[in-house]
């Protein structure tokens, strides 16, 4: 039985990646044999810089990027001041004539004011002086930071060259997994971390993603105030880079934050007795930061407008339809992100799902808007055609006032109208498209299943996949809205935030304080509805929503095949892979209709991925020529060799995949010609793979091809497991709904048992901040269904009442009635029984 303790706990051996007997190891190295990278004090920053230098393709590229950022800031400020104070617009617009002795044509320098006049206008403008002072201070700060970063990254460059044996020229051709493997190898020689004899992949991920894992967990538990219900707009999500910056400033690294350094939570936040005092302190700090944002709002707003104008004006002029394109929202990136998923891994997944997501959103074109757009485009095109014809006949037509402007505006109008006219060859198949999207993004609310054709599903998906124009507008409005979100929304959650960091922070040996969700332990944070039934001891409060723990565990294990997970996680991974292989093999024998492995993949269309590895993997090693495609490009179920696909999946096990690493310093070689990955590489060449990759005989290109193929196969394996887990989750949910419906209709005893469960649940103490205080109380609530957040309790009597909600927010707790909830006073240190639930201590 789980034992809940009310104090912050150091993570014991079941969580530690240290070998037995090395939990408190402190390695001693003689002074003369120490390397320059022995006992790096701040490993978080060190690994982050190693990762950043790899992602920026070496020191030279990073240096040029930093220099151009400094120059860009000076250019934006100087050019704006020049346009506002040093240009005579009357001459520019021909409202005032200029007398010339040598020529009658007005030149551009004629519109520039003299230097003394320009400088006088700048000195007399107090607002401009204020902007220049603020910009100068900010630029000097950036300059000092740039010099400091260059010195630090020079050391990282030396680390790559001397320790990892990787030159800056070859660095772009190495994958991060290869860099990470070399770091783990040299730990034995250089002792980068002296608290552990060996480093693991999870140690490195934890240090790079320490704070991001907290943010992902808070989004998953709907703790951050980013979802709002507005009177006219309905349910909306507002999460911008400015708001994210303020969250991180408050929680992690700003003055007075919850962390005392990059790897340790402040001791007072690890104890529960003073939680109310800490909540008041955090609330006051949020208030002052909100006020500071409000005071700096004009300056930040002007900067946002100018930066957006200089960044997007040329793009809009060249491609007017770019504003109608879509991008993954910042909220979507956190909602869809796995625990322990690096930036390039996330963007790779989302980029693969971009095309199918765009097609899905385009399925919902309004017929009325399409009719209007067609006719507006016809009228604008007719006028534009006449103007172009006249211009071809006589170029003097362009000298007529507003002719050139009219041509430009008409062209933009036609381009915008075309974005609302669907392709006449497009087939409306939202369910199949949503399945393809799920194969890449891995997360999807339950109520989207079977409702892909509804506008409600489309609107919710638009919160994850928004228009580029909406993204720009939100960033422009962020300086105005962010202060009010901090002052009026985030402050209310101060106590919940304090409890969250205390309850979900664990001290991992050799790593420091990390988010317990990032441990990906199905026993502590698994969800019974996501194949963790019987393996998890988590209460409702401790469960990660939407299968985040289970999917993150599978993703990390597939991405890092050398990682040795804990025993419970190993059992979960092995059992899941065994089920996929077994049911895939059963599908070959004719049990296809009820097979979740087939059901989750047969609807993937080749139209969205013409030669995708998913289809190739299900086909097995033979080429795609044997794949029979039905009408509209759907995969023919009869032709799918699922058992061969299972064999291909089995070949991706950690043992076989690890063979692509070469010795102690791996640089990938090509697999054997008959290896499934090479077969997949041949299929990839037919879908547009760079010919240089295939034809080049150099080791760099061979290593890149091998890494690309293996990475693609790992991505495909994860996609199939994600589809399978969602299909099993849906079947379990449908089975439970039908079972409980049958009980309500046919059995009177079921209602009595439910009442008994309700009575049993009343005996457990309730918290006004969190749903439950014990594992048993959570288990009692799980008897009805797998969704527990529509049920509320009376804080006085403790009785439960079922509450039907129309739609739950993606990722967790219902925000209803939170305004009416008040926190009960909590006694001092001596009485801790009424505190919210804590992570149980592993014994």
Automatic annotation (TrEMBL):
May I ask which residue range the UniProt record assigns to the signal sequence?
A: none
According to its UniProt record, where is this protein mainly located? membrane
Q: Which InterPro entries match?
A: Autophagy-rel_prot_9
Query: What residue spans carry the Basic and acidic residues bias annotation?
Result: 1-10, 736-747
Reaction catalyzed = a 1,2-diacyl-sn-glycero-3-phosphoethanolamine(in) = a 1,2-diacyl-sn-glycero-3-phosphoethanolamine(out); a 1,2-diacyl-sn-glycero-3-phospho-L-serine(in) = a 1,2-diacyl-sn-glycero-3-phospho-L-serine(out); a 1,2-diacyl-sn-glycero-3-phosphocholine(in) = a 1,2-diacyl-sn-glycero-3-phosphocholine(out)
Biased composition regions of type Acidic residues, renumbered to the chain: 748-758
The Low complexity compositionally biased stretches are: 762-786
Q: Where are the transmembrane segments?
A: 59-84, 122-140, 286-310, 368-390, 402-421
Bilayer topology: Multi-pass membrane protein
Q: Which keywords fit this entry according to its UniProt record?
A: Acetylation, Autophagy, Cytoplasmic vesicle, Endoplasmic reticulum, Endosome, Glycoprotein, Golgi apparatus, Lipid transport, Membrane, Mitochondrion, Phosphoprotein, Transmembrane, Transmembrane helix, Transport, Ubl conjugation
The Gene Ontology CC terms held by the record are:
autophagosome membrane; endoplasmic reticulum membrane; Golgi apparatus; late endosome membrane; mitochondrial membrane; phagophore assembly site membrane; recycling endosome membrane
- Report the locations given in the UniProt record: Cytoplasmic vesicle, Autophagosome membrane; Endoplasmic reticulum membrane; Golgi apparatus, trans-Golgi network membrane; Late endosome membrane
Q: Which GO terms describe its biological process?
A: autophagy of mitochondrion; lipid transport; piecemeal microautophagy of the nucleus; protein localization to phagophore assembly site; reticulophagy
Residue numbers spanned by region Disordered: 1-20, 653-675, 731-843
Return the PANTHER family for the record: APG9 AUTOPHAGY 9, AUTOPHAGY-RELATED PROTEIN 9A
Give the record's family classification. Belongs to the ATG9 family.
Q: What does this protein do?
A: Phospholipid scramblase involved in autophagy by mediating autophagosomal membrane expansion. Cycles between the preautophagosomal structure/phagophore assembly site (PAS) and the cytoplasmic vesicle pool and supplies membrane for the growing autophagosome. Lipid scramblase activity plays a key role in preautophagosomal structure/phagophore assembly by distributing the phospholipids that arrive through ATG2 (ATG2A or ATG2B) from the cytoplasmic to the luminal leaflet of the bilayer, thereby driving autophagosomal membrane expansion.
Q: What is this protein called?
A: Autophagy-related protein 9
- The species is Cyprinus carpio
């Amino acid at each position: 039985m789980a034992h809940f303790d009310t104090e912050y706990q150091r993570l014991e051996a079941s969580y530690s990646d240290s070998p037995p007997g090395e939990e408190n190891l402190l390695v001693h190295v003689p002074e003369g044999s120490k390397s320059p990278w022995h006992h790096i004090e701040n490993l978080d920053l060190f690994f982050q810089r190693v990762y950043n230098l790899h992602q920026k393709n070496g020191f030279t590229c990073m240096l040029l990027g930093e220099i151009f950022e400094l120059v860009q800031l000076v250019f934006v400020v100087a050019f704006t001041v020049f346009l506002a104070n040093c240009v005579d617009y009357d001459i520019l617009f021909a409202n005032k004539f200029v007398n010339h002795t040598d020529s009658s044509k007005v030149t551009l320098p004629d519109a520039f004011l003299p230097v003394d006049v320009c400088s006088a206008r700048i000195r007399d403008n107090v607002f401009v002086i204020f902007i220049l002072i603020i910009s100068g201070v900010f630029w000097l700060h950036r300059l000092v930071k740039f010099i400091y970063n260059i010195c630090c990254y020079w050391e990282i460059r030396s680390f790559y060259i001397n320790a990892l044996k990787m030159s800056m020229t070859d660095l772009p051709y190495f994958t991060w997994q290869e860099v990470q493997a070399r770091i783990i190898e040299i730990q034995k020689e250089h002792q980068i971390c002296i608290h552990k004899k060996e480093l693991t992949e999870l140690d490195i991920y934890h240090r790079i993603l320490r704070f991001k894992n907290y943010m992902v967990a808070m989004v998953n538990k709907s703790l951050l105030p980013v979802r709002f219900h507005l009177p006219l707009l309905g349910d909306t999500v507002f999460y911008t880079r400015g708001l994210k910056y303020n969250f991180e400033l408050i929680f992690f690294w700003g003055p007075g934050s919850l962390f005392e350094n990059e790897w340790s939570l402040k001791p007072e936040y690890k104890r529960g007795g003073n939680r109310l005092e800490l909540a008041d302190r955090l609330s006051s700090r949020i208030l002052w930061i909100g006020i500071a944002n409000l005071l700096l709002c004009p300056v930040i707003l002007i900067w946002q407008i100018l930066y957006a104008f200089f960044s997007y004006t040329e793009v809009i002029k060249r491609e007017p339809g770019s504003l109608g394109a879509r991008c993954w929202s910042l909220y979507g990136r956190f909602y869809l992100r796995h625990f322990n998923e690096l930036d390039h891994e996330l963007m790779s997944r989302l980029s693969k799902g971009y095309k199918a997501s765009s097609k899905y959103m385009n399925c919902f074109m309004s017929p009325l808007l399409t009719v209007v757009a067609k006719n507006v485009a016809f009228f604008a095109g007719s006028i534009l055609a006449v103007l172009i014809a006249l211009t071809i006949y006589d170029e003097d037509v362009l000298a007529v006032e507003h002719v050139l402007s009219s041509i430009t505006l008409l062209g933009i109008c036609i381009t915008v109208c075309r974005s609302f006219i669907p392709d006449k060859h497009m087939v409306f198949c939202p369910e199949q498209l949503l399945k393809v999207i799920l194969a890449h993004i891995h997360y999807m609310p339950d109520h989207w299943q079977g409702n892909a054709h509804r506008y409600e599903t489309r609107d919710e998906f638009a919160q994850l996949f928004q228009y580029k124009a909406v993204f720009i507008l939100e960033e422009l409005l962020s300086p105005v809205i962010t202060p009010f979100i901090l002052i009026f929304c985030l402050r209310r959650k101060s106590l919940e935030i304090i409890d969250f960091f205390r309850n979900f922070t664990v001290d991992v040996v050799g790593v420091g304080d990390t988010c317990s969700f990032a441990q990906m332990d199905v026993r502590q944070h698994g969800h019974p509805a996501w194949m963790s039934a019987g393996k998890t001891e988590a209460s409702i409060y401790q469960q990660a929503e939407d299968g985040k723990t289970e999917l993150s565990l599978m993703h990390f294990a597939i991405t890092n095949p050398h990682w040795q997970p804990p025993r419970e996680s190993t059992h979960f991974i092995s059992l899941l892979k065994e089920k996929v292989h077994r049911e895939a093999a059963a599908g070959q024998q004719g049990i296809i209709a009820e097979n979740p492995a087939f059901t989750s993949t047969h609807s993937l269309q080749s139209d969205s991925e013409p030669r995708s590895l998913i289809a190739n993997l299900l086909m097995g090693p033979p080429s795609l020529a044997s794949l029979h495609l039905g009408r509209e490009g759907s995969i023919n179920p009869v032709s799918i060799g699922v058992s061969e696909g299972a064999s291909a999946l089995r070949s991706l096990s950690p043992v076989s995949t690890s063979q692509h690493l070469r010795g102690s310093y791996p640089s990938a070689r090509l697999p054997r010609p008959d290896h499934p990955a090479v077969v997949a590489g041949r299929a990839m060449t037919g879908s547009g793979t760079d010919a240089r990759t295939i034809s080049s005989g150099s080791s760099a290109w061979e290593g890149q091809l091998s890494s690309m193929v293996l990475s693609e196969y790992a991505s495909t394996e994860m996609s199939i497991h994600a589809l399978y887990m969602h299909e099993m989750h849906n079947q379990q949910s449908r089975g439970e709904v039908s079972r409980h419906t049958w009980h309500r209709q046919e059995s009177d005893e079921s209602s009595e048992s439910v009442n008994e469960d309700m009575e049993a649940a009343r005996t457990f103490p309730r918290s006004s901040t969190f749903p439950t205080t014990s594992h048993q109380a959570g288990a009692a609530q799980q008897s009805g269904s797998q969704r527990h957040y529509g049920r509320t309790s009376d804080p006085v009597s403790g009785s439960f009442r079922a509450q039907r909600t129309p739609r739950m927010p993606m990722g967790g707790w219902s925000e209803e009635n939170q305004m009416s909830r008040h926190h009960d006073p909590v006694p001092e240190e001596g009485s801790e029984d009424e505190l919210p639930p804590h992570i149980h201590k592993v014994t």
